[in-house]
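Cross-check.
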Amino acid sequence: MSKDKIHVYFVPGLAAGKEIFKNIRLPEDRFKTHIIEWLIPEKNEPIDLYAKRMAAAVTHENAVLVGVSFGGVMVQEMAHFLTLKKVIIISSVKSRTEFPRRLKIARITKLYKLVPTRIMLSSDDLTKFAIGPKSRKRLELYQAFLHVRSARYLNWAIENMVCWQPKKPAGETIHIHGDADIIFPIKNIDNCKVIEGGTHIMLLNKGSKISKKIIEISTH
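Predicted model, tokenized:
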């Protein structure tokens, strides 16, 4: 019966759709998975009110909430409105101290406001912002999963990622992170479960290892 299963809700990374989780496989006899897709924010909507709207999609108590990259930020905000079994973030951050220097500079200087959204709406440029410019193969791989191209959403998401001010955690946040992540380098990350060789898009090429970690965390 579905009610006896562990319900796991996933929130994708910035501008990504549900297909980003295609390589995450949880045993169907024990788990029921749900994907929460991005909403278009209201004009000047505060992140906590947006998170409350996103949280309305979680209809089971004691669910496991999993977020990737900016989705990891979002699930930490959503957790304040929910009764959850676990909160898991992947390739993300838990505090401002975990931000890389370039994002700290962008926040202080507000450089992120100078990038025209019409440029960000280009597949290549949006992908480079989401995962970094290092690898053409990785860019092409991730690019296929970017579906949210609303200018309002992109402006809002980029600003709220760069300027995020975490509140006191609603509970323990369990962090899965790759040691080859160039967006959020592991040298800045505290207290995480490490995926060796994991990049910022390890969800796509290390799905079995991440699935195993999610199963272990969710059942303990």
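The CA atoms of residues 8 and 64 lie 5 Å apart. The first strand starts at residue 6 and ends at 11. Passed to J.P. for a second look.
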